[in-house]
Amino acid sequence: MSEERTGLIDGTDGKTRCFWHANLPDYLAYHDNEWGRPVADDKRLFEKLCLEGFQSGLSWLTILRKRENFREAFAEFDFEQVARFTEEDVERLLGNAGIIRHGGKIRSTINNARRAIELCEREGSLARYFWRHEPALEERPDKLDYATLVANPKTDISARISKDLKKMGWTFVGPTTVYAFMQAMGLVNDHIEGCVMRAEVEEERQAFRRPV
């Protein structure tokens, strides 16, 4: 069966992993060390949701390779600081060749920083809000294969979160963007069945202390 059909690929170390990192060193490191591992840090959650918004229409690899530039440009995604950005900051960022110079996405990040502060005031933290939407056991597939992953880039839960965030004034948070965020931040474990990282990530998720 082809790699494209199984969704798996063998690495130079002989281990089988999800297909999408294509054995590119930086992408492979992201797959192994970050993707799917549970996160409760508000700055990292905010960063990822914003960067998923910037990814819209692009590949995640493009964003990943510019991530340090984004962090420098957006005050390490400290949303308390980003919320104070002005139109002068927008112009500055539009001139920054190290990031994606898209005015709508830049303004969206500033807007979402302000909405993040409001959400924290209401919920206590971003982590509490997002982890409250973690799928229940009965909502998770017993086995995840490549076809399932490709066919379902969004779920009912990501659609509900998206709708809720939009009601609160967030932008660039469509259902597919939210689901990619859920995958990356560990709210679901979408390492494909047969990937060497799937069991390790699930063990980390089981040990993870959910925000309450």
TrEMBL record:
SUPFAM superfamilies: DNA-glycosylase. Pfam families: Adenine_glyco. This is DNA-3-methyladenine glycosylase I. It comes from Chelativorans salis.
